[in-house]
Amino acid sequence: MADRLDSTVALVTGASSGIGEATALELAAHGANVAIAARRRDRLDDLAERIRDVGVDALVLETDVTDEASVRAMVSETVARFGRLDTVVANAGVMLLGPVENAPVQEWERMIDLNLKGLLYTAHAALPHLLAAAESEPRNVTDLILISSVAGRVARLGNGVYTLTKHGVGAFAESLRQEVTKRHVRVSLIEPGAVATELASHNRPEILAATQARLAGVERLEAVDIAEAISFVVTRPRRVAVNEVLIRPTEQE
Ligand code: NDP
């Protein structure tokens, strides 16, 4: 079937919860073997069981993507185990909101280290393998999925540094797309609106309350809604590159 990922290998960062977890399961359901990376090993072990239950293989990679050596090991262990790399989803991220004035600067550092540097390390380590796999069967095309946000398109009061990181992801995606697309590596940007995950829970309590008030009454997306968009992108025929997908909850302004 044209929309299957049989005999391909996917790697998902931030797979221990939310969008990453749902994406790993979705790619497995399409037939991919999946390497799953994050820091919480117990969550990954549980997910690996669920992936194996659908009849494909899973590889657990306890990884801190803010550490370049850890990211290199993540990619090389995936290729050592499965022999190739076809789909990479650079998803790990954190959203720490609030005014710029008097913001705890360590929150900015966490977002820049994870949302930007972690994603860059992932793309850099994976790219040679994606380029190599794009020249071979079964698909002769490979995918690098970069998870941005609506905040990568629109800046809002109170999300200054998060929106900075996600705008950066979008700019990087377009430049890298132009660099590798003729060699059949598709670089795609996914830009979710509000999704019901753990993401907002890392905020200071007063910030969390303000965020929830702003989205009061909005039925959130579910992580599987984003996962399905990603599986749509990576199962397109070789001639089709879906460069960008913006998905909001219907009720989100
Ligand atoms: P979650 O908080 O549920 O997931 C974040 C994931 O990132 C977890 O698996 C976490 O695992 C992982 N992670 C955090 N720090 C590190 C690290 N140093 N190294 C490796 N992995 C790490 O949030 P979402 O699923 O919502 O977020 C996923 C992506 O989607 C993010 O990039 C986010 O910006 C983006 N997004 C989310 C939206 C939403 O509304 N939920 C909207 C728009 C974009 P662990 O702690 O085990 O390491």
Describe the structure in your own words.
The protein is 44% helix and 15% strand. The chain has 253 residues and is an alpha/beta fold. The model has no long low-confidence stretch (mean pLDDT 97). The chain has helices at 18-29, 41-53, 68-82, 105-133, 160-180, 205-214, 223-234, and strands spanning 9-13, 33-38, 58-62, 87-90, 142-147, 185-192, 244-247. The protein has a seven-stranded parallel beta sheet with strand order 3-2-1-4-5-6-7, sandwiched between helices. The site of NADPH dihydro-nicotinamide-adenine-dinucleotide phosphate has 30 residues, from helix 1.
Write a concise synopsis of the structure shown:
With 253 residues, this protein is an alpha/beta fold.
- CATH superfamily heading: NAD(P)-binding Rossmann-like Domain
SSE order in H/E notation? EHEHEHEHEHEHHE
Query: Number of DSSP helices?
Result: 7
Shape: globular
Number of strands: 7
Q: Determine and state the CATH class.
A: Alpha Beta
Instruction: Give the neighbour order of strands across the main sheet.
Output: 3-2-1-4-5-6-7
Structural class, judged by helices and strands? alpha/beta
Query: Residue share in helices?
Result: 40-55%
From the 3D structure, determine the CATH topology.
Rossmann fold
How many strands, what sense, and barrel or not for the largest sheet?
7 strands, parallel
Distinct compounds present: NADPH dihydro-nicotinamide-adenine-dinucleotide phosphate
